[in-house]
Amino acid sequence: MVATANDVSQLPPEMLRKGRFDELIFVDLPNQNEREAIWGIQIRKYGRNPSDFDLVQLGMATDGLTGSEIQSVFADSLYLAYDSDREPAELDVARILTEFVPLSKLMAEQITGLRSWAKGRARLATLAQEVERVSGELPPDMAGKEFAFGRDPFFSCHGPSFIPPPILIALCLGLPRKNGHRICVIH
């Protein structure tokens, strides 16, 4: 028997004991690799070629989104592109993300509570993996004057602090790489 629950704290204790289910598995929000895979699936599902998109960047730009939210963002980007009589691009995704409020922000306290509950009580569906960071270097004259947005090891986006991060994503997504990094400097 397999069962799912969005809020395990609402289940009676007798349902959670070891004899009822062999294993309790906590499925968290998708990690970077999982988001990249979800993007590939969704892009292919809508008849587009995933190699036409930078799945790494899309995965990083959608940190905190569920798989269904990623699907919704791509569907909305298709509509946005259709309005302009063209194929969707990463910039369309970025535009949609500027106004998108994910469940991870809407229900942040509940998600934190579920994560806390799962520690030591359930097996994690995804093993925690340490992501090796590669940091880009800023020109010396920018040090201390700008802020960096994002945790992307291959993507640095720097700009004045009055530009909201989603707008920075929109401005920086899809830029060409320089030495393996995407660098966007906004003055």
What's this, in brief?
This protein has helices spanning 13-16, 32-45, 55-61, 67-83, 90-99, 103-106, 108-118, 165-172, and strands at 25-26, 123-124, 147-149, 155-159, 177-178, 181-185.
Descriptive report:
The protein is of the alpha/beta class. Among the domains are: 32-106, Orthogonal Bundle (Helicase, Ruva Protein, domain 3); 140-185, no CATH class. 40% of the residues lie in helices and 10% in strands. It has 8 helices and 6 strands, in the order αβααααααβββαββ. The protein has helices spanning 13-16, 32-45, 55-61, 67-83, 90-99, 103-106, 108-118, 165-172, and strands at residues 25-26, 123-124, 147-149, 155-159, 177-178, 181-185. Strands 3-4-6-5 form a 4-stranded mixed β-sheet, with helices on one face. Strands 1-2 form a two-stranded parallel sheet. Strand 3 (147-149) and strand 4 form a beta hairpin. Helix 2 crosses helix 3 (55-61), helix 4 (67-83) packs across helix 5 (90-99) and helix 5 (90-99) packs antiparallel against helix 8. Residues 128-187 have low confidence and may be disordered.
Would you state the CATH class of the domain at 32-106? Answer: Mainly Alpha
Cα distance, first to last residue?
A: 58 Å
The number of helical runs is: 8
Low-confidence blocks of residues: 128-187
Q: pLDDT average, as an integer?
A: 74
The biggest sheet, with number of strands, parallel, antiparallel or mixed sense and barrel status, is:
4 strands, mixed
- What order do the helices and strands follow? HEHHHHHHEEEHEE
> Over the alpha carbons, how many angstroms does the gyration radius reach?
19 Å
- Which outline best applies? elongated
Q: State the CATH topology of the domain at 32-106.
A: Helicase, Ruva Protein, domain 3
User: How much of the polypeptide forms β-strand, as a percent range?
Assistant: 5-15%
Helix content: 40-55%
